[in-house]
Specification:
Number of strands of chain A: 11
Strand content of chain B: 15-25%
Strand order of the largest sheet of chain A: 1-3-2-4-6-5-10-11-9-7-8
CATH architecture of the domain at 4-254 in chain A: Alpha-Beta Complex
Oligomer: heterodimer
Low-confidence stretches of chain B: none
Largest sheet of chain A: 11 strands, mixed
Shape of chain A: globular
Largest sheet of chain B: 9 strands, mixed
Number of helices of chain B: 15
CATH topology of the domain at 4-254 in chain A: Amidase signature (AS) enzymes
Largest interface: A-B, 43 and 28 residues
Radius of gyration of chain A: 21 Å
Number of domains of chain B: 3
Number of helices of chain A: 15
Strand order of the largest sheet of chain B: 2-6-7-10-1-11-12-13-14
Number of strands of chain B: 16
CATH superfamily of the domain at 4-254 in chain A: Amidase signature (AS) domain
């Protein structure tokens, strides 16, 4: 008998509708699971236990009274600790924001609340989403539920670990260079980075504004489609939000891939990509060939410049976005300072962790007068070339597949001393953010090994394509015993 | 040795939009409880995002058109990064390489000199620091408070070319600029309340030599202050050069109470603002349809209004004065509805009325005299009910009480004497009482005639019609 916390949201929603379970049953199952595993894993910075129970009871009462409830009403959802919830503390896993309570709801939170989903807690992350292992949190590391000696990936490591362990049914993360997809890959769950502008950023605490997107982390592709449907859509409070109608993403979950052209990224087997990742990729290519899909190699010549390009643009924007944390208005402050400069220095020295400081310094440097043209402007040009690379490739294929990350989850502490080795973990995911396109990571489980994330990249607003392909892949993996879920 | 001066101005005007530049908060912040006119966006709270107020863009475009600027079809916002407690995001959203408009000009109303406009761009205002001490000055405070009510209010910055050669030209420009934004209805241009602010760049050089080092002046909160500060600074720079010193490139603060400029920061302390394109906002596209709409709805500008006033029979100088103070021009136009001689109205407004207003430090629309009442007063003169001299007295009462002129004239018994026999009687008396004057008049001292008119007027307590008095006196002398 499966526990409720192991099930995907769509199954639980069906069970609630047919009266087999109540929202309270689900919330209690998840809370028990949290009780059981949280001390070791540390997925959450805060769990809203009492409120979750209260809300579940209210939903059950409404359902009993015959009220027409939204599909996902009563499903517990975890939010990364950089998405604002009215009346709740929000920290970005940084000391500098400690005790800051948001006076407003992010747009995605409003949408989740309007669906009557239950926010179960805020999840741990790399400080200000800067990192790939959730080791850069001021509140302690998160462990990978599949192997607790390893990292869950990052920066949305808490969200991915929560979904993978059953400490949440679904979660939201944010993805600036891979922060949804890479932890999803490491924890063996599904992570989707929507097209830039599809999901409102209003209420997402900014890391790099031109790259950030909120997206779902779920147990399977169907859940990813459902949650995306909840959070996507034009928002007047985000100027970069796209004026598009949101399709029914679950309609993409058919079986056939007729007419679908799949590209395979050249270089997925390059140096630095681990043996198990390469063989998983080959197995997946073989699966697509077996079911009769046209698979061809795709060359993206500018991809090798993506990492340096990203490490100019993202820190530049971050250095500006994070300048507001100065101890004047909110969050951490310091007493006994003589003047305002001293306050800034003291607060920012004590409040930010090393990685955040490193990126603020890099960003400040590349924007400085005399360096702007050589770094920031050049990086913007390279960014355009990368976008054009994808545009050209998508003339011939509908999606492009590759690995999500060059390796499976690495050990805790393995890469903290060497920032470059840490940055390389996102080498395959970063180009997607630079180009603003859509992508999803689907896990492949083989034997006793850790899962490998398969990265399926789509066009701008190509969410229907990537969902269609990833869903079919998921079905094929299930049939071949390469699937971990229910 | 003769010196020449070069001055350029940077003027900020708050726009009269209903809401702030990037959020829905009101722009009407003055007098509100601190930090009550705010929201997550203008407080720069984590996660909040700006959305451009289209009205503010329209206002900026109106200004750019009025200043004869080239309108850029594409522009965008930048972030200007610096730390200061009144700046909630630690960056100001402003424009940088591509402003809304550039390469414009305006013609000064008196000197008719053409001044170049380098650029005009949109940006957001900062909050306000309050230093809780008796003096209100930062150097006396042990701590400061910040009020974000003003943060995010839309501003346009108008940068002039360094085309001014004297402080009075700079002042003339600033007054004309104020009149333009007032006529456009995009700003109230109030320097005292800070809705119009002005920084100046000023340098001096010996005639025929290359340009001097420029100094930036801040904190001139009135037209007078601007003129004073520039005069002071020019003198300071000349004295410095004359005594063998060198002018340093720096920013100086004008202290109105001390009537001097004080060094704020030198060149080496100049900040690197690390400008980069604001990723939270989309580029601004101005299309022809939008421009056409705005051009169609452009109100009459000061230059055209001056011409129209002149065509109504008013002197060029008088017209300029009335237009440069938009409220006076508006008052004038209202008064014209009640009295059909524009020139007489203008003379009254610019004479006695303006005198009283200046004494009281008051805007014309705040006075108790309504345009209809002024028109009525002038009608009373015209139809001979009162003399011009009596009218001055009546006006003075109107100014302090707001009563109708008819009521005052009646109560005070000021109706003009029209009965010529009565005036003749007084003339006879005056001639009898001043034989010496009559004699000198006949000896050729014709100026003494006015003295005799005055005596008659005095005897009638000003109620006699001076023209009638003249006629009778002429006959009888």
């Amino acid at each position: 008998m499966l526990e409720l916390f192991e099930l995907p949201a769509w199954r639980l929603a069906e069970m609630m509708r047919s009266g087999k379970v109540t929202a309270l049953d689900i919330v209690e199952s998840v809370l028990e699971r949290i009780e059981e595993r949280e001390t070791e894993l540390h997925c959450y910075n805060e769990v809203y236990k009492e409120e979750a129970i209260r809300e579940a009871e209210e939903i059950d009462r409404q359902r009993k009274a015959g009220e027409d409830l939204p599909l996902l009403a009563g499903i517990p959802i975890a939010l990364k600790d950089n998405i604002c919830v009215r009346g709740k503390e929000i920290t970005c896993s940084s000391k500098i924001l400690r005790s800051f309570v948001s006076p407003y709801d992010a747009t995605v939170v409003q949408r989740i609340k309007s669906q009557k989903m239950i926010i179960i807690g805020r999840t741990n992350m790399d400080e200000f989403a800067m990192g790939s292992s959730t080791e850069n949190s001021a509140y302690g590391i998160t462990r990978n539920p599949l192997d607790t000696s390893r990292v869950p990936g990052g920066s949305s490591g808490g969200s991915a670990a929560a979904v993978a362990s059953g400490e949440a049914i679904v979660a939201l993360g944010s993805d600036t260079g891979g922060s949804i997809r890479q932890p999803a890959a490491f924890c063996g769950v599904v992570g989707l980075k929507p097209t830039y502008g599809l999901v409102s950023r209003y209420g997402l605490i900014a890391f790099a504004s031109s790259l950030d997107q909120i997206g779902p982390i779920t147990k399977d592709v169907r859940d990813a489609a459902l949650i995306l449907g909840v959070i996507a859509g034009k928002d007047d409070r985000d100027s970069t939000s796209l004026p598009v109608d949101v399709p029914r993403y679950e309609d993409a979950l058919g079986d056939t891939l007729d007419g679908m052209r799949i590209g395979v990224m050249e270089g997925y087997d390059a140096e630095g990509v681990s043996e198990e990742v390469v063989s998983a990729m080959e197995e997946v290519i073989e699966i697509f060939r077996t079911i009769g899909v046209d698979v061809k190699k795709v060359n993206l010549p500018y991809m090798e410049y993506a990492l340096p390009c990203y490490y100019i643009i993202a820190p530049a924007e971050a250095s500006s976005n994070l300048a507001r944390y100065d101890g004047v208005q909110y969050g951490m402050s310091e007493d006994g300072v003589g003047n305002i400069r001293e306050l800034y220095r003291k607060v920012r020295t004590a409040g930010f962790g090393d990685e955040v400081k490193r990126r603020i310094m890099m960003g400040t440097y590349v924007l400085s007068s005399g360096y702007y043209d050589a770094f920031y402007l050049k990086a913007q040009k390279v960014r355009t070339l990368i976008r054009q690379d994808f545009e050209r490739a998508f003339e011939n294929v509908d999606v492009i597949i590759g690995p999500t990350s060059p390796t499976v989850a690495f050990s805790i502490g393995e890469r903290t001393a060497n920032p470059i080795s840490m940055y390389l973990s996102d080498i395959f995911t970063i180009p997607v953010n630079l180009a603003g396109i859509s992508a999803i990571s689907v896990p492949v489980f083989r034997g006793d090994g850790l899962p490998v994330g398969i990265h399926i990249m789509g066009k701008v607003l190509g969410e229907m394509d990537i969902l269609r392909v990833s869903y079919r892949l998921e079905q094929e993996l299930k049939e071949r015993g390469l699937y971990h879920g229910v | 040795m003769e010196y020449e001066t070069v001055i350029g101005l940077e003027v900020h005007c708050q726009l009269l939009t209903d809401s702030k530049l990037f959020c829905g908060c009101s722009t009407d912040y003055i007098g509100k409880e601190p930090n009550t006119n705010v929201c997550p966006v203008c407080l720069g709270l984590p996660g909040s995002l700006p959305v451009l107020n289209k009205k503010a863009l329209e206002f900026a475009l109106r200004a750019a058109i009025a200043l004869n600027c080239e309108i850029l079809p594409y522009s965008h916002f930048y972030r200007k990064n610096y730390f200061y407690p009144d700046l909630p995001k630690a960056y100001q959203i402003t424009q940088y390489d591509i402003p809304v408009g550039r390469n414009g000009w305006i013609e000064l109303p008196y000197s008719h000199k053409r001044i170049g406009i380098t650029r005009i761009h949109l940006e957001e205002d900062a909050g306000k620091l309050v230093h809780p001490t008796k003096t209100g000055r930062i150097e006396h405070a042990t701590y400061s408070l910040v009020d974000y009510n003003r943060a995010g209010v839309p501003l346009i910055e108008i940068v002039s070319e360094p085309d001014f050669t004297s402080p009075s030209e700079a002042k003339e420009y600033l007054m004309e600029l104020r009149s333009i934004v007032q006529h456009l209805g995009i700003s109230d241009g109030n320097m005292e309340l800070g809705s119009m602010r002005c920084d100046a760049n000023v340098s001096v050089h010996k005639k025929g030599e290359r340009l001097g080092v420029k100094v930036e002046l801040k904190n001139m909160n009135s037209f007078k202050a601007l003129e004073r500060a520039l005069n002071y600074e020019i003198e300071r720079q000349i004295e410095l050069i004359e005594s063998g010193g060198e002018v340093e490139q720096e920013t100086r603060h004008w202290s109105e109470p001390e009537r001097k400029t004080i060094s704020l920061r030198g060149k080496e302390e100049a900040q690197d603002y690390r400008y980069f394109p604001e990723p939270d906002l989309l580029p601004i596209y101005v299309n022809d349809i939008m421009l056409k709409e705005i051009k169609k709805s452009m109100p009459e500008l000061p230059a055209d209004r001056r011409k129209r006033f002149v065509s109504m029979g008013i002197g060029e100088k008088e017209a300029s004065i009335m237009v440069i103070e938009k409220s006076i021009g508006d008052y004038f136009e209202e008064a014209v509805k009640y009295f059909d001689d524009a020139k007489i109205i203008a003379n009254w407004i610019l004479g006695d009325f303006l005198g009283e207003l200046n004494k009281a430090g008051m805007d014309i629309w705040d006075s108790k005299v309504k345009p209809s009442q002024l028109g009525r007063l002038l009608t009373l003169i015209k139809n001979g009910t009162i003399s011009g001299k009596i009218a001055k007295k009546v006006f003075s009462i109107m100014f302090s009480t707001g009563e109708d002129p008819d009521k005052i004239v009646k109560r005070e018994g000021l109706v003009q004497i029209v009965d010529t026999s009565e005036i003749e009687k007084v003339v006879d008396e005056v001639l009898r009482a001043n034989p010496d004057a009559v004699e000198s008049y006949h000896k050729g001292k014709v100026n003494i005639f006015n003295f005799l008119v005055g005596q008659v007027m005095k005897a009638t307590r000003g109620k006699a019609n001076p023209n009638v008095v003249r006629d009778i006196l002429q006959k009888k002398i």
